[in-house]
Design goal:
The complex is a heterodimer of chains A (about 110) and B (about 110). With about 110 residues, chain A is an all-beta fold. Chain A has strands at about 5, 10-15, 20-25, 30-35, 45-50, 55, 65-70, 75-80, 90-95, 105, 110. In chain A, strands 2, 4, 5, 6, 9, 10 and 11 form a seven-stranded mixed beta sheet that branches. Chain A has a four-stranded antiparallel beta sheet with strand order 1-3-8-7, with no helix packed on it. In chain A, a hairpin with a 6-residue loop joins strand 7 and strand 8. In chain B, about 0% of the residues lie in helices and about 50% in strands. With about 110 residues, chain B is an all-beta fold. Chain B has strands at about 5, 10-15, 20, 25, 30-40, 45-50, 55-60, 60-65, 75, 85-95, 100, 105-110. Classes of the chains: A mainly beta (about 110), B mainly beta (about 110). Chains A and B meet through strand 5 and strand 10 of A and strand 5, strand 6, strand 10 and strand 11 of B.
């Protein structure tokens, strides 16, 4: 069990550029979650997958955001036409289907200039 | 919708002091309750959890009891250490879906 990994750990981009983050969950976990955490706040749910199916999306996930999990393993989160308000820590978590404990990765910190 | 409220920080204590961080929740049904900890520069780590009323979760000297009658899950530790300095998040999970987190409470323990 190597834990949840996320890449890159840090990303600096200019407003209007597209960025993509990757999450590799714990290998036997079927569920994968994305959260956003801004400074001084708790994580806010964005979306989750069960295997390759995206089952729920938050209102926070505007049409500039898209997430995929094509083979039910790793996932990518893409933000198009980034805005300064997108600056945050993006967290990925995974869990077994039917189990409730979610295991979090170290996060990707995004700064939009 | 579901929500979690935590006491505002920062909380500053001397080493070996007693710690309480209050957490209350609003939820439909019977959620599971969690405390996560985030050390500087790291991701969230599960500290402890409780899945039903009157359950007590415990780990590393921390404990919290699921109180359905007061919708609370207060975190306690009898004697804090400098290494406990971190941000603590209370969270609930309803029916195995996404988590709802509180805003976090920053704890600083001074030697």
């Amino acid at each position: 069990d190597t834990g949840v990994s996320q890449n890159p750990r840090h990303k600096i981009t200019k407003r209007g550029q597209n960025v993509t983050f990757r999450c590799d969950p714990i290998s036997e976990h079927n569920r994968l979650y994305w959260y956003r955490q801004t400074l001084g706040q708790g994580p806010e749910f964005l979306t989750y997958f069960q295997n390759e199916a995206q089952l729920e999306k938050s209102r926070l996930l505007s049409d500039r955001f898209s997430a995929e999990r094509p083979k039910g393993s790793f996932s990518t989160l893409e933000i198009q036409r980034t805005e300064q308000g997108d600056s945050a820590m993006y967290l990925c978590a995974s869990s077994l289907t039917g189990r409730e404990t979610q295991y979090f990765g170290p996060g990707t910190r995004l700064l939009v200039l | 919708g579901d929500s979690v409220t935590q006491m505002e920080g920062p909380v500053t204590l001397s080493e070996e002091a007693f710690l309480t961080i209050n957490c209350t929740y609003t939820a439909t049904g019977y959620p599971s309750l969690f405390w996560y900890v985030q050390y500087p520069g790291e991701g969230l780590q599960l500290l402890l959890k409780a899945t039903k009323a009157d359950d007590k979760g415990s780990n590393k000297g921390f404990e919290a009891t699921y109180r359905k009658e007061t919708t609370s899950f207060h975190l306690e530790k009898g004697s804090v250490q400098v290494s406990d300095s971190a941000v603590y998040f209370c969270a609930l999970n309803n029916y195995g879906q996404n988590f709802v987190f509180g805003p976090g409470t920053r704890l600083s323990v001074l030697p």
